[in-house]
Every structure is written in C-alpha cells, then in structure tokens.
Task: inverse folding
C-alpha cells in the first residue's frame, strides 16, 4: 500500500497549511474534541436511525463481492443501523484518510493495515476499541496479533486478515529434480531452500526468484525468523540495532545471487512480476506474499502444478504481523454501532469469505477452520493457515520514522547490497546512519 | 575565347543541364522518402501505446501472464469489457467525467478570455502584479493546498459534489489558461483593432468581430487544455468524492491497481480504452475547429 503513497512530509506540510486555515477561522467548530480519551458508547432511542460509512480498499473481485455481501446482510438485519460503503484504491488509503481526518469527514469504519494506522492512532484519530471488542472475539485472535494493533496501550483496530512471505513452488520441476515438497512438520530452513534452489537451477531455469524491487518489507519480515527485530526501546522512537540476526536473510540472498541459484533479474521486479517467469518454468520457486495465490489461480496456464511451501525456518518461522485492520474514527458519532458492525464482519463465515477472496490468512481460529474446510489441502493451504501462529509484532511498524527510513534509506541500501555495491558492513552503516539522521 | 572553344563550352553546359535537375529530383525524392519514414516512425511511436492498450484489452488473463507477449491476442475475448461494465459503474463515471471536464473547459475559458485580453492590452502596475501572481501560483505544489481546499469545500457544502470538483479544477487550470490566452491576444496586431475603430466600430464590435475570430484557435486550444486536465485529474477527485455514484473515471481506473505491484491488467486496459475514446473524439472535433480558426484568422489578418 506504500507504492505510490505521497510523501508524508508533503502531507504534513499540507496539514500545517490546514491548521493555518483553521486558525484563520474558516472552519466551524463541529466534530469531536482533540483529547485522547476513549469514546463513550452511544445509546440509541428505539426508533433512532443510524447511518455509518465504511471505507474499504478491497481489491480482488471475490473480496469486493464478499464485502458487499457482508454489508448487504448487515443492512437487511439491522434496519436502524445502515452501512454505506466508500471504495478507495489500495494505494490511496493513507492520503485520503489524512484529508478526511483534517476535514472532520472521516468515515465511521476504516479498512486499513496495522503499519499505516500507527500515526493515525498516535494523533488520536482512531477510537480506542478496548472496551468495545466482544470478549469472544478477543480470545479468537492470537495475542501477538493484538499486540500489532495496540498503540500506547490502546487497541485502535481489529485485525482481520494477514499476509506472510512464502515460497511458491512449481511441483513438476521439483519432482523432476528429485526435490521433495516439505511438510508443515518439517519445513525447509533457509539453507535447505538454498541447497534445493541449487539443485533446481539448470538450463534456462533458476531455482529461486524473489521480486525485490521494494525489498525492505519482505526482508525485514522474514528476518524475524532469525530473531532480527531491528529496533528496540521506545515504541514511537526506538533505537536501531543491526546484528547478524538482521543480516542473515540479505546475506543468504546475496550468496544465492552469487552462485546463481537465485535469478538476478528478479531483484528488479515487483512481487507479482515474477509470476510470468514462474508459469514459464524460468523460475522453479518464487518468494511472494501469499496473496498472489489468487492471481495464480486466475491466470496460470492449464496443467500448471504449484503449491505454497510452509514458512521458511531460521531459528524459528516468525514473520511480521501487519494485518489488514478495521478501525473506528474518533470523529464517529456512533462508535458502539460501528464496533457492532466490525464484530459482525469478524464472524467466521464473513471473515472466511474475505480471506479466501484475497488468499490471505484470517486471524481468528474459527474463520481459519472454515477456510481449511472450504479449500481442503490444495496448493499448500493448510500450512499457510497454520502460519497465523507465527505472526509476531513487528516493532518497527510503530516507529514514527519508519516510513521515511524505509523509503529513503533502507530500500536503496538493500538494493545496493543485493547488487554487490556494498558489503555487510556497508549495509549496516547505511541502515544505522539512515535511522539516526 | 575562340568560336570553337565557345561552342565547346556551350556544348559542355548543354550536356550538364539535364543531369543536374535529375540529381536534384533524386535528392528531393530521397528527402521526401526520409520525411515519410520519419513521419511513420513518429506515428508508430505515438500510436503504439494505444495499439498495445487495444491488444491488452482483448487478451485473457492466461495470455497476459505469458512471459513472451504477442502483439495481437491469440484468443480474442471481450471478458475484460464485461468485467469493466458489470463490476464498476463505468458509464456513470464516464458521464461524471464528461460533465466535470466540459464544465471546467467552458467556465475556465469564459473567465480567462476577458481577463487575458485585459492583461495583454492594458499596460499598468496591475498587469505586472497580476502576471507575477499567475506565475507564482504555478509553483505551489497541489499537495500543499489539498487539505485547506478540502476544508473550504466542506464548509461551503461542496464536498462530495461534482460542482465542488469543477470549482477546484477551474481554479487550478485558470492561471495556465490565462497565460496561454494572453499569448494569443498579444499575437493579434493592435493595428487591426485601431483600423476597425477608425472605421467607426464600437469597442464591443471590435471584440466580437475582430478579436474573437482571431482568438478562436487560442480559445479552442485553451478549452482543450482545461478539458484534458480535468478529464485526467485524479488526486483532487480522490479526496473530494466519496459517493460511488459521483466518481470520475480516473478513480475507477485506480481501483484496478492493488498493493505491491499487483494489477488487474485486462479490465484496467478495457476501462482505460473506453475512457480514452471520448477524449479522442473531442480532440478530433476540436482539432478541426482549431485549424478552421487559424485559417479564419489568417484571412482576416
């Protein structure tokens, strides 16, 4: 969602200009106050009608339909609380919300992702949902995932579906090379993946490819599998620490590029651009967000056999928990009713439909069980659904400076490292200096 | 010089005379051939993206996912157009875009025309200040003003309305259109207006019968600029419009692009193709007027 996002600094400038406009007296004094207290659940008269707006960036056709179905069934069952959908494209969510919050016109219910709501949470734009989330829903989501949407002790979002970076394998090529597909009980380590990529590299086929045009998110998430947490200390202003744990994944990738078991051309491609080469047999395995499973199902040639592998293991299989989220704007007049809708959205049947549409992992156990029942054991889905337990809080997502550091320092540094322009010491220096600047 | 040598000299000239024009003809032919080759190359360069868009719009997801793409679809499909029409409000979005772009073009031109004439013809401090302000206004990045604009539109009750969008586009396009039209006005010889005045024409008559016909190409060009700017604009529409029934075409197109580089390419191409057609049509009509205006101006001038 960060691909074409307008620089936050520019928007901050815009916000300043807006503040000046407000000072000039151009704005009426409507809307909620600016304090940080939790919203009081509003009580309604028996015949009072409530209208809620729900901003969503659902992208895949099946997810769009599932979202519309959820809203339609809610509206049919709740004639006094009607929800209207506002669609927004995934790359513009942040920019639109910034202006909507500034103009006191934010939607009541907001679909976003954990990494993006950190700033909005700290600025007091999102309601504290701690007291509005039903107890059973609280128990259905792993605590590590709740941690990723807790800012300063306040839960400002309900996590819905999550993404992991996983290996997609062409099972025919694996079979031809005598490489067995790993099981959830015995996942490949990164070194085992490297060894098997070497076996698969022959003729015009590269064993492994990873679209690393924007390398930071994937490398940092998978580095958690080596306990690489990158930052420590204060939630908003942590300190950076680059050790062997943080360097394990990029160092292995560089080794693979050097021995050609990883396709060098893939480092300049986006996450989904590698799929054409995957279908054509140019790459035997590709690393990508598990959401590309939907795309593979839609466009892979007939007879193409593939599977998702269990998460690669370093010292563990952890990856960053950056789930999609549903929040309630603090400006909303009806936070309790908005929270009721979110609880409905989170019901197993609804969340399973959303997760299946996006090929992402539902964060609640009942929804995951339902998806497992619906999809069976095709294409490695059981291992993928089990990955929900491996999601851990990524502390960098809550740091104020992370978006700027990621775009201006980390991404160029990783690109230079993978291109062989700097070594581990150089990478460490650029990542550290960038954080401190 | 003797008679013989004179005859020889004349003979030589006579012998060379047919060869030189032949060489010139060949050179001219090669030159013309080169011009046509360059022209064809230029047309291919300009037209290829449109051809590729057309081809992509008729390809299936499987064909679009091939590592080696073909220039034309192997199996033509209209599925992308079905998706474009069934899963989005494309006709409504195109209508909204047309209303907004046409209104912007008309309002901008109507405001810019008298202003440009006044600024081009009147010599005073006001002109210097105004022209300076127009230039300064061009250096403001739109991101700087988007939140204040949002707040103002909200207070005026114009948020989530096509009228609000037109107001913003007119304000945004006006400085440049004013600048463009000033150039066209300055190019009209002042002597023509003086001659008309000498013949007894009133100021209004001069404007309507002398200046306006000569300014027509500029008005058309300015209107086209304002139209295309509004037709293509995305960001203001993104923040101002929330009602799906009021969305413009660029908002619809953006929704085919997902996170991390994923693109729903077939429906995107189909929608982009349909979105381009009205614009192309208006351009082709306006182009004729533009040429007609130039001719009319040259005759009168």
Result:
């Amino acid at each position: 969602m960060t691909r074409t996002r307008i620089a936050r600094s520019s928007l901050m400038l815009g916000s300043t200009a807006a503040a000046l406009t407000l000072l000039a007296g151009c704005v009426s004094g409507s809307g909620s106050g600016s304090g940080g207290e939790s919203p009081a659940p509003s009580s309604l008269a028996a015949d009072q009608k409530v209208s809620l707006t729900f901003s969503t960036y659902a992208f895949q056709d099946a997810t769009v339909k599932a979202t519309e179905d959820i809203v339609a069934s809610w509206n049919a069952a709740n004639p006094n609380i009607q929800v209207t959908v506002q669609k927004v494209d995934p790359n513009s969510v942040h920019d639109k919300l910034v202006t909507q919050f500034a103009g006191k016109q934010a939607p009541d219910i907001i679909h976003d992702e954990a990494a993006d709501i950190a700033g909005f949470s700290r600025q007091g734009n999102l309601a504290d949902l701690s007291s509005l989330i039903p107890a059973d829903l609280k128990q259905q989501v792993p605590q590590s995932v709740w941690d990723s949407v807790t800012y300063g002790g306040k839960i400002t979002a309900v996590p819905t579906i999550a993404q992991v970076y996983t290996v997609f394998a062409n099972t025919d090529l694996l079979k031809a090379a005598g490489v067995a597909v790993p099981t959830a009980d015995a996942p490949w380590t990164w070194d085992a993946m490297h060894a098997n990529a070497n076996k698969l590299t022959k003729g015009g086929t590269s064993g492994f490819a990873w679209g690393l045009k924007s390398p930071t998110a994937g490398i940092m998430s998978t580095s958690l599998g080596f306990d690489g947490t990158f930052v420590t200390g204060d939630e908003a202003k942590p300190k950076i620490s680059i050790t062997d744990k943080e360097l394990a994944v990029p160092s292995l990738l560089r080794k693979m590029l050097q021995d050609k078991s990883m396709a060098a051309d893939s480092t300049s491609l986006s996450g989904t651009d590698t799929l054409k080469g995957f279908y054509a047999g140019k790459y035997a395995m590709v690393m990508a967000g598990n959401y590309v499973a939907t795309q593979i199902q839609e466009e892979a040639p007939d007879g193409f056999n593939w599977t998702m592998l269990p998460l690669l293991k370093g010292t563990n299989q952890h990856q960053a928990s950056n789930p999609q989220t549903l929040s309630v704007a603090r400006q909303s007049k009806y936070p309790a009713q908005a929270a009721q809708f979110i609880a409905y959205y989170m019901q197993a049947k609804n969340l399973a439909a959303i997760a299946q549409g996006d090929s992402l992992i539902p964060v609640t156990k009942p929804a995951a069980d339902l998806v497992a029942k619906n999809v069976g054991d095709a294409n490695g889905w059981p291992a993928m659904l089990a990955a929900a337990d491996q999601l851990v809080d990524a502390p960098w997502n809550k740091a104020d400076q992370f978006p700027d550091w990621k775009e201006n320092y980390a991404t160029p540094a990783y690109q230079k490292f993978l291109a062989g322009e700097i070594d581990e010491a150089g990478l460490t220096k650029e990542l550290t200096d960038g954080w401190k600047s | 010089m003797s008679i013989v040598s004179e005859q020889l000299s004349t003979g030589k000239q006579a012998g060379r005379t047919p060869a030189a024009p032949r060489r010139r003809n060949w050179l001219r032919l090669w030159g013309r051939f080169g011009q046509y080759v360059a022209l064809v190359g230029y047309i291919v360069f300009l037209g290829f993206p449109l051809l590729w868009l057309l081809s992509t719009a008729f390809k299936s997801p499987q064909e679009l996912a091939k590592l080696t793409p073909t220039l034309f679809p192997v199996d033509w499909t209209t599925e992308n157009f079905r998706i474009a029409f069934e899963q989005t409000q494309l006709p409504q979005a195109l209508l909204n875009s047309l209303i907004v772009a046409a209104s912007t073009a008309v309002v901008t031109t109507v405001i810019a025309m008298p202003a440009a004439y006044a600024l081009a013809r009147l010599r005073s401090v006001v002109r210097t200040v105004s022209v300076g302000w127009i230039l300064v206004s061009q250096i403001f990045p739109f991101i700087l003003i988007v939140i204040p604009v949002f707040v103002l539109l909200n207070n005026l009750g114009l948020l989530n309305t096509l009228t609000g969008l037109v107001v913003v586009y007119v304000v945004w396009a006006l400085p440049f259109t004013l600048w463009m039209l000033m150039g066209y006005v300055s190019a009209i010889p002042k002597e023509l207006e003086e001659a008309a005045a000498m013949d007894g024409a009133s100021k209004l008559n001069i404007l309507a019968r002398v200046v306006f016909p000569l300014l027509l190409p500029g008005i058309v060009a300015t209107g086209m600029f304002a139209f295309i700017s509004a037709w293509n604009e995305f960001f203001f529409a993104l923040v101002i419009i929330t009602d799906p029934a009021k969305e413009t075409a660029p908002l619809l197109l953006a929704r085919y692009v997902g996170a991390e580089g994923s693109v729903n390419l077939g429906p995107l191409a189909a929608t982009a193709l349909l979105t381009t057609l009205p614009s192309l049509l208006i351009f082709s009509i306006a182009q004729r007027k533009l040429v007609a205006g130039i001719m009319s101006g040259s005759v009168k001038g």
